[in-house]
Write a structure and sequence with these properties.
The chain is an alpha/beta fold. The chain is built from 20 helices and 18 strands. α13 links the parallel β14 (319-326) and β15 (343-347).
């Protein structure tokens, strides 16, 4: 079995703020069948240690970015983990990236530089009896690892995966020394980005190969509209860039066995969950579809467009149940909107409730301005909720629009719209409500969505081929 060190700042079910955690948590299981063993390097946040226990000591540092640190080897829920126990960086309450003021911890660059440093050292063989054939780095938090290998003159093949290019891991140039980075690479060919240090750019220029989480997003990333200033760097490495869709963990997301819902096997079984969902949100019965949103509330997710489109949804007899948190302005606006009896909003993060929402919802709305892959539309497909999505990134790659031809061919799985505007979303909502009023068509669509493959099989094969190519 060939060995990979997967380096990530979050990993389900231990610690999660978004899709990265789901992917980091599911990939090891998916790759095992392809002949690749993934060991996951993750910070030992308090919530993680609480679940895993302290395990065995695999390495000790007297001084890792200023303080002692310990590498702990533990197994949890099928995951083979190396936990970086550096209390000065990770022993903090609350959100893993944000302080109590809701802002990034000021030392985030150092916190995740330490993670990347540890990864690079592990790649050179500091853990007894183990050395990875490949380093798989996820997002900016792991992106300095290939740079640290390079500056140490060490050679371990690496894959840099972009889950979301909106986060660069920027630090001011004065932190070069603190981040153990050499000034000779602080250039436009290196990790310099408009006079800042960019951790993500370091990974993009120094990893052996690059990937992102859908083919369409891989294309989009080379354009100024989506590349967020890194489109040139990515375009210059286009030949090394792959787009591989995320799958979902079918053991966790199974309508038949999910402990958070009333289990069901076909569209008929959704009714009980819809009832439970209405109860959970205090929503009345209605003539139109019960639409749901489970999302971070940020500019990216386009939920301001949904606010504008709500009158259309209500006029069509539809309802909305929203679960999310984030931008205070959006939180406030949705709270206000929930004064309408057919709109219910829960501000917060609630994993079990999210399962009930996919199980009980008639449709899931994802009007993202950009979306590297997106997972909620995949959960929607699996649970027979019709995804209504902006035609961008991974949303475009995973939902087949129910146009006449696709309906006739029996391949339609949802509704896609473009451009990402309130008007286009309103049209999509009207189409959704039209389908809902045609029960035969609606059931056919639901059945088709539930059959759509959303597991890891195909993507795991693609990752295996890519890993093999990179490692030779
Ligand atoms: P992103 O990673 O950009 O946030 P994704 O769609 O890739 O978007 O993944 C989001 C993940 O986080 C999904 O698993 C989704 O169900 C979950 N999620 C987002 N917000 C919440 C919330 N408020 N409560 C529970 N789960 C949430």
């Amino acid at each position: 079995m060939r060995q990979v060190l997967s380096v990530t700042s979050e990993c389900a079910p231990l610690v999660k703020t978004g899709g990265l955690a789901d992917v980091a948590g599911a990939l090891p299981g998916a790759m095992e069948g392809e002949g690749w063993h993934l060991r996951t390097l993750l910070p030992a946040y308090p919530a993680v240690l609480e679940k895993t226990g302290k395990g065995k000591i695999a390495h000790k540092w007297n001084d890792l970015f200023g303080h002692p640190a310990t590498l702990r080897k533990v197994a949890y829920n099928g995951l083979d983990l190396l936990l970086l126990d550096a209390p000065h960086f990770y022993n903090r309450p609350g959100n893993i990236y944000l302080g109590p003021d809701g802002k990034d911890w000021p030392d985030n660059p150092e916190r995740f530089a330490a993670l990347s440093w540890a990864a690079a050292e592990i790649a050179t063989g500091i853990v007894p009896d183990w050395r990875p054939d490949l380093l798989h780095c996820h997002d900016w938090q792991a992106a300095l690892a290939p740079q640290y290998l390079r500056q140490a003159g060490q050679n371990c093949p690496s894959l840099m995966t972009i889950h979301n290019i909106a986060f660069h891991g920027l630090a001011p140039a004065e932190r070069l020394g603190a981040l153990k980075l050499p000034s000779e690479h602080f250039t436009s060919e290196g990790f310099e980005f408009w006079s800042y240090i960019s951790a993500l750019k370091a990974g993009l220029v120094s990893a052996t190969a690059l990937s992102t989480v859908s083919p369409t997003y891989a294309e989009e990333l080379t354009s100024p509209e989506f590349g967020m200033g890194l489109e040139g760097v990515i375009a210059s490495r286009k030949g090394d860039l792959s787009g591989i869709l995320n799958g979902i963990d079918l053991t966790v997301w199974s309508p038949k066995t999910d402990p958070n819902i009333a289990p069901f096997t076909g569209p008929g079984g959704k009714a009980r969950n819809k009832k439970k969902l209405r109860q959970a949100f205090g929503l009345p019965e209605a003539d139109g579809p019960l639409t749901v949103v489970v999302s971070r509330l940020t500019e990216q997710k386009g939920l301001d467009l949904l606010l504008a489109a709500l009158p259309t949804l209500l006029a069509e007899g539809g309802q909305l149940a929203l679960l999310g948190s984030g931008d205070p302005g959006l939180e406030y606006a949705f709270r206000q909107a929930s004064e309408a009896p057919d709109i219910a909003v829960k501000i917060g993060y609630d994993e079990p409730l999210s399962h009930l929402m996919f199980a009980g919802g008639d449709a899931v709305l994802v009007p993202s301005r950009f979306e590297p892959c997106g997972l909620t539309q995949l959960y929607a497909l699996r649970y027979g909720a019709i995804p209504v999505v902006a035609r961008t990134g991974g949303l475009a790659d995973t939902v087949i629009d129910a146009n006449n031809a696709a309906i006739r061919a029996g391949v339609a799985t949802g509704i896609t719209f473009s451009p990402t505007t309130a008007e286009a979303l309103e049209t999509a909502i009207r189409r959704l409500c039209g389908f809902y009023r045609a029960p035969d068509l609606w059931t056919k669509l639901q059945k088709r969505t539930m059959q759509h493959p959303v597991g890891w099989d195909a993507s795991a094969r693609e990752y295996a081929a890519l890993y093999s190519r990179i490692t030779g």
